[in-house]
Amino acid sequence: MALQRSPWSAPWVWVAVVMMGCSTPNPDVRVRELPDGQLQVTGPLAGPFPSMEELAGSACEILTRQPGASSGDYGMEYCALVYYSGAEDAYYLSHLSDIHGTGVGRTKSCRVPTRLDDPRHLDAVILGRGHNHPHNRRFSQADLGDERRWVPTRIADSRTGKVLRRQLLLFYREKAGECRAYKYDYTDREVAALRGGGWVPIGAVRDELGNIELYEGQDWTP
């Protein structure tokens, strides 16, 4: 993904933020639409992290604390990019997008950015996308279907020699307060839950439509 510098201080670049009755801009949301129609976010919002596990735990707290992010059927979806810097051998979370993030009912959406503006990490490799669900803890069938599968599913970093996998992250805050993080690995099509600081495989996608089959003894909650 190409990186571009952009004049974020200019007033025309900011996308209006709907904040549930508050007119103050959300500092975590920094997204704009480029002339070609793609969305671009700045970064980083959080990081560096030494692992995807630590990033996911922190990102869960960040996304689910946003206005309306844990408000059930009347809630709001936010999304962000996850990326890697070989120069620092570290992972980062971009600022957020809230475009197309509102709606009432069981169907939520957030238009995922495809471009990143981070002048401090010009070697950034975009590894995945992250988003919250305000109303349920499961990936949607559309999220896991072939139409949204990100290819190539693996990418090599020339600086570190690491082979990095592309992933989709999902975050949900329980009513009792616990923040749950999940990932979908685009390479092996496996779904895992973050538990005790590590990923626990709970199921696999078995067809192009995105139907998931949970492993024996596993579920979305422990």
Structural description of this entry:
By secondary structure, the chain is mainly β. The chain has one domain (11-214). Helices cover 8% and strands 32% of the residues. The chain has two helices and 14 strands, in the order E-E-E-H-E-E-E-E-H-E-E-E-E-E-E-E. The chain has helices at 52-64, 141-144; strands spanning 31-33, 39-42, 46-49, 79-85, 90-93, 115-117, 125-132, 154-156, 163-165, 167-173, 179-185, 190-195, 198-205, 212-214. Strands 3-5-4-7-10-11-12-13-14 form a nine-stranded mixed β-sheet. Strand 1 and strand 2 (39-42) form a beta hairpin. The longest helix has 13 residues, at 52-64. It is globular and about 45 Å long. The chain starts with 30 loop residues before the first strand and ends in an 8-residue tail after the last strand.
List the main descriptive attributes of the protein structure presented here:
222 residues; disordered N terminus; nine-stranded mixed sheet; mainly beta; three-stranded mixed sheet
Strand order within the widest beta sheet? 3-5-4-7-10-11-12-13-14
- Cα Rg: 17 Å
User: How many strands?
Assistant: 14
Which segments are poorly predicted (pLDDT under 50) over 5 or more consecutive residues?
1-21
Shape: globular
Helix content: under 10%
Q: Counting H and I runs of at least 4 residues, what is the number of helices?
A: 2
Oligomer: single chain
Major beta-sheet overview: 9 strands, mixed
Distance, first to last CA: 37 Å
Strand content: 25-35%
How would you state the average pLDDT, rounded? 88
Q: How many separate structural domains? A: 1
Order of helices and strands: EEEHEEEEHEEEEEEE
